[in-house]
Design goal:
This protein has 209 residues and is mainly α. It contains nine helices and no strands. Helix 4 runs antiparallel to helix 5 and helix 7 runs antiparallel to helix 8.
Length: 209
């Protein structure tokens, strides 16, 4: 019906603007930001009219927009991600199984946006993401979204510790390496690249220590 058609148009517009943003990211960062801003502001209007229907798309666009803004407009980036994390925490009460993976993604984005001067806050966000994703990852018997989220969270935390604590970095990199090694054995074509990057990171730590 007409309502579903209109919803598809809204999604199509947001995705199109975001795709243009991705295209320009390494060519013209200002253009990239502008297209993601169009996508974010567009869906925000719909979200304000019906926050249940558009919450997920609003959260996705807000995360991408805030990441693009973190160097150019850090205050605005933090403001957007703060709104989104509050929204997701409210949605967790309604349906935890659906919203929890998105919450972990937001925690990782939040950690990346926080100023490097506030290392305790960055670590707090990444550790929370690691803890939640690990609890769900260990329950899985097959590769799932929690596999990706646990790897992403471990990677962010490991790389954060690289800046000032090599021992902690090594601890989390070893865990990351163990998981990626198992995934690589099962499917070397898909997981080979990331596994290789982690080996290089761990080797770099040995050179430092």
């Amino acid at each position: 019906d007409q309502s579903k058609y209109n919803d598809l148009l809204v999604e199509y517009y947001c995705i199109s603007m975001s795709n243009l943003s991705v295209y320009y990211k390494n060519i013209n960062i200002d253009k990239s930001i502008k297209y993601e801003e169009l996508s974010y502001n567009f869906i925000k209007k719909y979200f304000e009219k019906d926050n249940r229907k558009w919450a997920l798309l609003y959260i996705k666009r807000g995360c991408d927009y805030s990441l693009l803004l973190r160097n150019k407009k850090p205050k605005l980036a933090r403001s957007i991600i703060n709104e989104i994390i509050i929204l997701n925490e409210e949605n967790l009460i309604i349906d935890e199984s659906f919203w929890l993976p998105h919450y972990v993604k937001i925690l990782n984005v939040f950690g990346l946006i926080v100023s490097r001067k506030d290392k305790e806050k960055r670590i707090q966000m990444f550790k929370k993401a690691v803890d939640i994703s690990f609890e769900n990852f260990k329950k899985e018997t097959i590769i799932s979204i929690w596999t990706d989220l646990y790897i992403q969270s471990l990677s962010n935390l490991s790389n954060e510790y690289l800046n000032y604590n090599n021992e902690e970095a090594m601890l989390y990199f070893n865990e990351l390496l163990k998981i990626q090694e198992n995934l690589y054995k099962d499917n070397p074509i898909i997981f080979g690249k990331e596994y290789l990057y982690t080996i290089f990171d761990v080797a770099g730590l040995f050179v430092k220590t």
